[in-house]
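Case study B.
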Amino acid sequence: MLSTMQDVPLTVTRILVHGALVHGKAQVITWTGDGEPQRRTFRDVALRSTQLANALHEELGVEEGQVVGSLMWNNCEHLEAYLAVPSMGAVLHTLNLRLPADQLTWIVNHAADRVIIVNGSLLPLLAPLLPLLTSVEHVVVAGPGDRSVLDGCRAAVHDYEELIEGRPTRYPWPVTDERRAAALCYTSGTTGDPKGVAYSHRSIYLHSMQINSMEGFCLSARDTLLPVVPMFHANAWGTPHAAFMGGASILMPDRFLQPAPLADMIESVRPTLSAAVPTIWQGLLSELDARPRDVSSLREVYIGGSTCPPSLMRAFEERHGIRVVHAWGMTELSPLGSVAHPPGGLTAEEEWPYRVSQGRFPASVEYRLTAADGGLVPWDGSSVGELEVRGPWIAGAYFGGADGEPFRPEDKFTPDGWLKTGDVGAISEDGFLTLTDRAKDVIKSGGEWISSVELENHLMAHPDVAEAAVVAVPDEKWGERPLATVVLKDGTGVDYETLRAFLAERIAHWQLPERWALIEEVPKTSVGKFDKKVIRRRYADGELDVTQLDPSGA
Amino acid sequence: MLSTMQDVPLTVTRILVHGALVHGKAQVITWTGDGEPQRRTFRDVALRSTQLANALHEELGVEEGQVVGSLMWNNCEHLEAYLAVPSMGAVLHTLNLRLPADQLTWIVNHAADRVIIVNGSLLPLLAPLLPLLTSVEHVVVAGPGDRSVLDGCRAAVHDYEELIEGRPTRYPWPVTDERRAAALCYTSGTTGDPKGVAYSHRSIYLHSMQINSMEGFCLSARDTLLPVVPMFHANAWGTPHAAFMGGASILMPDRFLQPAPLADMIESVRPTLSAAVPTIWQGLLSELDARPRDVSSLREVYIGGSTCPPSLMRAFEERHGIRVVHAWGMTELSPLGSVAHPPGGLTAEEEWPYRVSQGRFPASVEYRLTAADGGLVPWDGSSVGELEVRGPWIAGAYFGGADGEPFRPEDKFTPDGWLKTGDVGAISEDGFLTLTDRAKDVIKSGGEWISSVELENHLMAHPDVAEAAVVAVPDEKWGERPLATVVLKDGTGVDYETLRAFLAERIAHWQLPERWALIEEVPKTSVGKFDKKVIRRRYADGELDVTQLDPSGA
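Model:
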């Protein structure tokens, strides 16, 4: 039986029109670093978005399905592009300004951006790349910055304000199929080319509803949101769309992401809710210790991107009365994910184990753990497996492979269409997720998984060990076994048997490494993480001096 | 460009599975009137729902697309039917047990219910109708009640518990198109046959997300919900689906809807949130005055169904610390509607004008006011028009007309597909709706609308007037003009000119009635509302002694 309900699509256009009409008085406040911040009402933002759409279509010839890039900070003009470009049926490609130049070039060419809207302050980054960006015909410059660096470039150059000025404030928004692409964001893994995720109107709309829900960020028209997480990073966790949908004012930090201006803008504009990675909050905490500001307007801050140290969460709560909420997500998940809201009826202390977990998923994110042997892992709080997810705002493929078709790499998608997150952890009976490892860092030994992170933490707790990295190496009998590489503290000398005995008191016998090697330093990536693929390669190349102990126990 | 997101449907099945897995410890608590309430976890409810689906399919032969009726109070078994029937691809038809017998018979036959699940306590209502219910092959009786009244009936009779006992706790849930019907609810207008609204999986899913949002009822896993509004009335405002989706425990009042047991169950089970019509809250307030109970667990109650007197809202807040939130909806809207959450940054007193309005609509409900001449009415807080709405959980047609096809009566749907709510009001600049009249009660005079309710309120403020009803009557020059019918208080005698002068100080001159009649009593409907169609008919039949004053001003 067919229902009798209206068939109305879920689109970014609806978010634009609704925000303008119903929440027209809410504000977008962009920090300018000196003097008064720039303030525009949602109504003005929507009118300017409409003018932008007209300009892109009339003047630059942008058609439905074409790609418009943005190389911008978090500011009002970026939000205008967020709303205008998808609403006119085109696709907004947010460019990560922190990517290496070659990757940035690669993704602009891969997505075939016809236009790039760029902040003036980022022109020094864009200008040298322009000759390599084969599809880019127009550059639109927003905000202050020296335009002369673009002199002589092949693309036509426009000033954002001049381009939109006097354009019509109405646009014949197309009725868009909710499954069409609205926005494009590339995720840069550690291996291979960046992979594009093409968010749909449907996924953005549903995700916005989720952010505004009690299981999400509890964002409402009574809030002012400070999105510190960049708008080029999974749509600033979807918060600008959600704020415009729900009528929350938005404080945009622009390029002022250092602790001091962040503290200044919080004191001055008084946001109620914020979202950022732990590093930002760590920096803000130190800044407030050094030079106190009134940050009492903040009721909650959402932390994600990497695991937040519980000490940081407690520090914010105890010293500033700000509740820190842990969340987990990925670009492929729009990016939400799980949120660590504890169950009801608990004391503050009882809430902590739930709050430091990755949290629970909403109904729209189905989740399961898969064991090394492919079987499902029970939700008992201790059995571990790789996290796989499924749902209407989760990627089911990547954008445009070699032949232009969506592609589904085997290491990223299961045959039945679930996304493999590459994260390993356990889920409690009541659905709370605790992640322990990246899948590539666990050792798959005889159908069981051994956590390299756990082994490393135990080894580094030994008084003579400076650093330790554990990696999986091939083993004929078990498939994989752990190799422990250890950096000793200066002037110390322990033997492997002692270290293994130390471990044996802390972990199961079958998890104990047989292979050991001393190294001078653990190789690191550019952001300071252990670079385990270097260790694995050195082992494969026979460069390590490996001692093999008698297999013990297993 | 197509997106790369997964194409996962929004279904009731997802709500069922998610609630069972992630919120398995939440509870459904059904009040039993004596002794301990019945308690089941979401996990148990989901298992029993699955057994019910197996029973309906295996034993009763229910197939996808067929209709299963429920004639039940708010209790756990009704929730099990809510989850099981749509998940197996069938349609749950909730039967309004307060309908007259002939209407109940009509809708069961119209929807072709094959099965009716009925509470034992409601058998005296169902038994006499059964011989007339031509499509009903099976009756499933849940809960206590004398089954002997069914002796000799044509349909097969089953006991709910015996039927589901021992059935498999797995079911091969079909992958359902989200636009298929999941539930069916008839709305009984004052004229014509009842009209069926067939909710889709999509509409129920999106509506549930909205109830759990900050713009909705802010319902979460930290709540215990008490839905007093019946589950046969627009799915209890969608709250049971939302609670199961978000993990809120549910206190089901079953048939104990009188003020005394409601107060008892609130004190005993301590719900945090409730939803009901104003009459319920008025009764509860009096009950608490007469015999105080501890109702401090309630943080918010949502009131809808009819306009809530501000005095009632204030009384709950001041005497019991419970915040009353006004909401508006219709069966055709799933039923939400607008919610009167005030904007941020206001004092408690400044919030009141917003809180006594009908509130604002979320992004998924597009709304507009249409004037008598068909033009759009500006959102200026004073211009009035008929409210029209559009969105993914709003009916676009009614279920099965004479030929079985969906039908779209002209007085209910605009040519461009919007639902005409039949309500008249104004919308403020920031989107807050204030309803003033039913469309059929406004007087369309020369392209302007005159509020009969406003005229009545002013007339009834005159010290000599006991009651007054104003209706539209045909007028050659203006299309329609108001007729004022007045009931004087005993022993008083005023002339019409005096009353008109009294009105003239309060309303615009062109709104003043020329036609006046004294009547002995305003005719009322069975629920005590003014029955204006009786007055209009008496006027048309020449039964009223009408005095025509000189036209004034207009």
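The longest strand of chain B covers residues 465-475. The remaining cases will be described in the next quarterly update.
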